[in-house]
Design brief:
Blueprint: H1 2-9, H2 14-25, H3 29-58
Helix pairs in contact: 1-2, 2-3
Organism: Oryza meyeriana var. granulata
Protein name: hAT-like transposase RNase-H fold domain-containing protein
C-alpha cells in the first residue's frame, strides 16, 4: 500500500518515499535499508517479468 502511494506521489522517488515511511515506522533504523533493498529487488524482478511479457506479446501474429 505504501509503495502504491509513493508511486502515485512521484514514481522516480518511490524508494525515497518508501525509505522515509520505514524510517518513521520501524523501531530499528538498520532494518530500513534492508526493507528498501528488498522492495528494490522485487520492483526490478517485476519490471523484468513485465518486459519479457511485453516482448512475447509483441511477437504474436496479428490477424
Amino acid at each position: 500500500m505504501v509503495l502504491l502511494i509513493a508511486t502515485v506521489l512521484d514514481p522516480s522517488k518511490r524508494l525515497f518515499y518508501l525509505g522515509w515511511f520505514y524510517e518513521k515506522t520501524c523501531a530499528l533504523l538498520n532494518e530500513v535499508d534492508k526493507l528498501v533493498a528488498i522492495v528494490k529487488v522485487k520492483i526490478k524482478h517485476n519490471h523484468e517479468i513485465m518486459s519479457t511479457n511485453v516482448a512475447s506479446v509483441s511477437l504474436l501474429p496479428y490477424h
